[in-house]
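Predict the 3D structure for this chain.
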Amino acid sequence: MRVGIVGVQGAVSEHEDIVRSLGHEAIRVNKPNHLEGVKAIILPGGESTTISKLLKTTGLFGRIKKLGEDGLPIYGTCAGLILLAKKGDDQVASTGQELLGLMDMEISRNAFGRQRESFEERLDIEGVAKNFSGVFIRAPAITRVWGGCKPLARHGAFIVAAEQDNLLATAFHPELSGDSRVHEYFLSKA
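Done. Predicted structure below.
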């Protein structure tokens, strides 16, 4: 199966490695024509405002949004989670960041602090994995869900994993954990 990993900025190669280790073809997506034939898309972690702007300037933003609306599986990690949300926080508003608006959730950028407050936490992800090592790096969090969005994991007061139909989002980086269960679950959607 051909899996597109959005490659405009962020942790791209780690997702490519895990997708290939699971026996799938990983395509780095930098232009709209790179999306041809993909059966799933991964939006990696990175800097969400930068990724949003680059998606707009490359012409990928509208195409990815439409594919998600049409049912193509999309998985967002960290910055990708922010981009999938329908509602952002004050930081999103102050930067003028445009969100894909695909998932019925509200997010908080940098909910767990800055880079130096990064941490690793064991998580039970409902229907996906027990005792999973979640790597949180300047991580966002989901503060509210509604409609079809379902929380899958929590850390403290925050939701850190959610899904909605063909869409999956995690505040943490499973590609850095050495554990492929979250990617396996996502790819089973395709």
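The chain has a mean pLDDT of 94.
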